[in-house]
Amino acid sequence: MRPQTFTQLTPHIFRLEQPFRVPVGVWLVKSGDGWLVIDAGAPSFENALFEQILKQTGGTRPKLLILTHGHLDHAAAAERMHDEWRVPIAAGRLEIPYLTGPQRYNKIPADSFLYRLIQLSPPPMIGRNARYPLDEGMRLDGLEVFHAPGHAPGMVALLHHADRALICGDVFSSRGGKVGDPLAPFTYDMKLNRRSQAKLAALDFDHLLPSHGQPVMNNGGAQARELIAKRKKK
Fold first, then answer.
1. Which of 37, 75, 110, 194 has its CA 20 to 30 A from that of 167?
2. Is the dihedral of CA 219, 140, 171, 228 positive or negative?
3. Residue 66 β-bridge partners
4. In DSSP terms, which residues pair with 14 in a beta bridge?
């Protein structure tokens, strides 16, 4: 298999797609004095991820890892990145208890029993060193934080104002270039997630960058708003 490499999407944002069971994106964001990683990928891709990060950054280790949420396909390399590279880990304030161990995803009251079965798989303390809580409105190197629960309790989306790009985690997905919902079996409360979609769609951005599915460039914001408008008419 050819190594997956980072592709530049906007002046500051780069994307790598890992061919997991459901392909998932990892993001690098260039700031004035270094690099941020957003999400830490899926299991068994850790070596390739580390190699490609250093290739993209010219050997510079990232200064911060931000987890949009703690599901296994987004956080598998988090602890290794912390231990080997001494990279601090940040996540939504309400997500940290699920990363550090006291809370479990399979204990969340969910729309379907299938969700609980699926969420038995992530190991506890997958992000036990996630110690930097992110709150609504915080800004980090050009990124503004938005709390967007429904798929995960402490999901955060990150708006890069200068690049007019929204890294939305699993709040949205894209299929065939069209913006839609995340996979229902992995989403504990789809109604709540759709309220988060409406909140994010109201922001001012052009490019929608979901973790699953291809980036929706130029008209991602318009597509998100169109999706919300169609639902209001029903």
1. 110
2. negative
3. 38, 90
4. 8, 28
Joined together, the tokens standing for residue 165 give 């790009």
Q: pLDDT tens, 88-131?
A: 999 999 999 999 988 989 889 998 888 878 776 566 678 899 99
The conformation of residue 2, written as its DSSP 8-state character, comes to: P
Q: How crowded is residue 217: how many other Cβ atoms within 10 Å of its Cβ?
A: 14
Per this entry, what is the length of the chain? 234
Report residue 108 as tokens.
């969340």
Q: Where are the alpha helices (DSSP H) in 154-219?
A: 190-201
Burial of 26 by CB count in 10 Å (0-12 exposed, 13-18 middle, 19+ buried)? buried
Q: What is the pTM of this model?
A: 0.95
Instruction: State pLDDT tens for residues 9-51.
Output: 999 999 999 998 889 999 999 998 899 999 999 999 999 999 9
Residue by residue, DSSP assigns 14-46 as: EEEEE-SSS-EEEEEEEETTEEEEE----TT-H
